[in-house]
Amino acid sequence: MKFANILQQPFTLPCGVTIPNRIVKSAMSENNADKGGKPSERILKLYKTWGEGGTGILISGNVMMDSKALNEARNVVVEDETYMRELKEWANVSQKKGSHLWMQINHPGRQSPKFNKDVVSASDVQLPMKSMFPKPRPMTEEEIWKAIDGFGNCALIAKKAGWKGVQIHGAHGYLVSQFLSTLTNLRTDQWGGSLENRARFAIEIYRDIRKKVGPEFPIGIKINSADFQRGAFTEEESLAVIEMLSFEGMDMIEVSGGTYEKAAMMGAGKKIKESTQKREAYFADFIEKARTKTKTPLLLTGGFRTLEVMAKAVENNELDFVGLARPFAVFPHLSKDFFEGTKTEVRIPPVKTGIKFIDKMGFLDISYFSQQMKMMGKGMMPDPKLGAWSVLFSFVRKNLF
User: How far is CA 61 from the centre of its chain?
Assistant: First the structure.
């Protein structure tokens, strides 16, 4: 139980809020809201299940702060208090057993599919997948400040609804990430050019949220260790931005990596050294460098699978919180299982049909975890033995008929 005890240690954030343990369910897109972005009963059932698992923090999937900028058709949208009753219930069912529910706030920028009528970004750089994502137009100065205000308003609504924290999504190629990268930010005004200018959008979002929610409400950010594309946001730049955010007073920084084009957050397109593989996490080397640059609490997500490795990372002061995402879609009470000694690792077999051209496309993997979450949304428990063919047939039925 030694390793479990390490992860059960509480941790007090800079704002003074104490998190009950070191395990975080990192964000996974539910894409299961009702029409208009209303939090659905399905989402409430999903989080009720997760809330029974004893996890320190449950971070929601993308909550969009602008109904005109969605990255999926069924995103939850919070731009005013229309859904206050549902948001309060979401917080209530998630937090009954002691978990803290945080809202991940996002704007997709150029990663907005074609059903969005007016796609904006830092600049007019289009994604290569042109059939899916239209060319964005550069945001005006007024639109930038309006977006900053939107992030702040969304955070304030979360606080009013009883959520215990918020996370700015500044990774994976979404709008905040687009401002940070020289590939997607070609601006020559105060929002582009130097790293300080490109980081201004993220910093102003933090300042606006802090002003609205006060000094004692947790604010975190998810940031790329790098974009893993030539000429894009680099590791050195990420470390510098982490220093800037730390100086501002950020309560938690979650490290991830990649974009829609290079999905390193899922382990794709990234060569991993053998020494790093033993530590499991995709961005283990980077988190050590970040630790030397900041005293802000660090959360690392991606790749963790064994209790011993997670505990040693905390014990060795490499990080403060261990983030798990996909394992929670299959084992929703994983933290409780770890703490009670019924599990010491989590292994999820690859979702493969054995047909190479299908397996290489990658959609089965995403569909597998999405299907598990939707099962919980119907009041059922996930099925670890769910087969690839069942996932394929479900995907085909949903998307082709």
Answer: 6
Give mean pLDDT, residues 319-344: 96
Give the whole-angstrom CA distance, residue 264 versus residue 225.
Answer: 10
Q: Assign residue 21 a region: left if phi > 0, alpha if psi is -120 to 50, beta otherwise?
A: beta
Interatomic CA distance for residues 52 and 10, integer angstroms: 18
- Left, alpha or beta for 172 (phi > 0: left; psi -120 to 50: alpha)? left
Q: Which residues contact 192 (CB under 8 A, 6 or more apart)?
A: 122, 123, 179, 185, 186, 198
Cβ neighbours of residue 247 closer than 8 Å, sequence gap 6 or more: none
Number of C-beta neighbours around residue 369 at 10 A = 22
User: What b/e string do you get for 240-274 counting C-beta neighbours within 10 Å, with b at 16 or more?
Assistant: ebbebbbeeebbbbbbbbbbbebbbbbeeebebee
pTM score over 0.85 = yes
Q: Would you say how long the chain is, in residues? A: 401
Judging by beta carbons within 10 Å of its beta carbon (0-12, 13-18, 19+), is residue 391 exposed, middle or buried?
buried
Q: Torsion angle of alpha carbons 112, 70, 249, 93, nearest 10°?
A: -150
Six token digits for residue 353: 């049909």
- Is 287:319 a contact under the CB 8 Å cutoff? yes
Distance in angstroms (rounded) separating the CA atoms of residues 191 and 142: 12
- CA neighbours closer than 13 Å in the CB half-sphere of residue 297: 25
Place of tokens 């992860």: 7
Per-residue pLDDT tens for 91-150?
999 999 999 999 999 999 999 999 999 999 999 999 999 999 999 999 999 999 999 999
Q: How many CA atoms lie within 13 A of 54 on its CB side?
A: 14
